[in-house]
Amino acid sequence: MLVAVFTAIISASVLAGGTVGLFLYLYLPARHVTKETRDVVHLATGMLSVLAALVLGLLIATAKDSLSSADRSVRDFSAVLVQAEQGLRVYGTEAAPARDLLRRYTRAAISQRWTQDDRDILEVAAPIGATLEQLRLTVLSLRPANDVQHWLQGQVLAQSDKLLSLRWQMLEQQDLPFQPVFVLLLTSWLFFIFAGFGFMAPRNAAVYAAFVVCAVAVGGAMFLIMEMETPFTGVVQVSRQPLTIALAHMER
């Protein structure tokens, strides 16, 4: 909902700026619409356009890094889950309770990461952490009968530590802090940029259509940026396929 509101505000600011510029030209005294004035407005608009492009590029790069980092975390998490399950499977029937806990943990992790309700995230985070701790205690309680089982026990414990680290990493990526200052700054710049465009543009339907297209394009870009900042919710999401594949492997 917040993403849609910000997108609408940004698109509206572009349209409002262009419209203000178009009508401002009509109502200003003649001494304010000379060629020299238009040249200065052109230079100022160009400077703001460069600044806006830099900020927009920074936001896009940051959002893309956030999405890529979350995707890597999910893939690493899935790989460690499979490795831990394989180690428990090789260990033998004594590790069956631990394997069952690992499957339960994986199902719960999938449910938590891709939930659409922040209240659900808070409700299930603690039980999932308890399941992982129970898994560690279960593995610790195993009594290796030979060197191979002893080695496998150590490997699974190390992998459970890695799972814990990756779990907290993904929890931090669940809903990254949004920086409204950048958006507000960019919105104000876009307003003045398109006001300058409107001030210098002819008054016809083609210009209005161009402003509408630009408003939709800029709003769409900001929509994608804000969606990529929340990689486990919304329209643009990290794929859950690595985890579902890992779970399918465990349940064979």
TrEMBL record:
Pfam families: Bestrophin-like (PF14023). The chain crosses the membrane at residues 6-28, 40-63, 178-199, 206-226. This is DUF4239 domain-containing protein. It comes from Roseomonas mucosa. The keyword Transmembrane helix applies. The lineage of its organism: Bacteria, Pseudomonadati, Pseudomonadota, Alphaproteobacteria, Acetobacterales. Keywords: Membrane, Transmembrane, Transmembrane helix. The keyword Transmembrane applies. InterPro entries: DUF4239 (IPR025333).
